[in-house]
Write a structure and sequence with these properties.
Layout: H1 10-32, E1 42-45, H2 47-55, E2 64-67, H3 71-76, E3 77-78, E4 82-84, H4 94-97, E5 104-108, H5 113-124, E6 129-133, H6 136-142, E7 148-149, H7 151-154, H8 159-187
Parallel strand pairs: 1-6, 2-4, 2-5, 5-6
Antiparallel strand pairs: 3-7
Length: 188
């Protein structure tokens, strides 16, 4: 086995230290840029940061809040002033949001999974300021922030079912009383 011997002079030791430090710096740079740091185009944000962005009308003048859930989910509840483009339709409807290419876009869904997919689609289509809201509308509601809720879906109208039960009850009583009268009339 061959060993490398360095002369014990000051210049060769300095060169060796410089090479070691350079290698450490290269490794640190590779570690820091391997996805641990935020993507400069897409950033994951909490619902608190999203709420601050939505309510800060001076810094984010043209902010787009993009809901990528289904229309049924959107009609149940959504963030105020949100634009609905379901994930399945996003690539085909890029022209609708093309004007937001260089402005902030908050993307959200129910729990954060579909919004991540939608954010990646926006990155591929050259959108530059994408904010993926972690936890989706579930985390937003849990945090107690304001949102639009379709109260018609929650308030069940009992008038029609009560009316039907009443009619069925009346018909049942009439049927029973007519059978009883018929039996009484036969017995005479």
């Amino acid at each position: 086995m061959r060993t490398i011997k360095f002369k014990k002079n000051r210049q060769s030791r300095s060169a060796l230290y410089l090479i070691m430090i350079s290698l450490l710096l290269i490794q640190f740079y590779n570690f820091a840029s391997s996805g641990i740091a935020a993507d400069p185009v897409r950033t994951d944000i909490s619902v608190g940061v999203a709420n601050d962005m939505i309510n800060n009308n001076t810094m984010y003048l043209d902010l787009l809040v993009l809901d990528v859930r289904t229309i049924e989910e959107f009609n149940t509840n959504h963030l105020y002033n949100a634009t609905l483009i379901p994930l399945a339709e996003l690539e085909g409807r890029m022209a609708e949001i093309e004007s937001y290419n260089d402005t902030e876009i908050i993307v959200y869904c129910r729990s954060g999974s579909r919004s991540l997919q939608a954010s990646n689609i926006l990155v591929v289509n050259n959108f530059s300021k994408i904010y993926n809201m972690l936890g989706g509308i579930n985390a937003w509601i849990e945090a107690g922030y304001n949102y639009w809720l379709n109260e018609d879906l929650i308030n069940i109208d009992f008038a029609f079912p009560v009316f039907l039960v009443s009619i069925i009850g009346i018909l049942f009583v009439l049927a029973l009383s007519s059978k009883r009268r018929w039996k009484l009339a036969k017995s005479y």
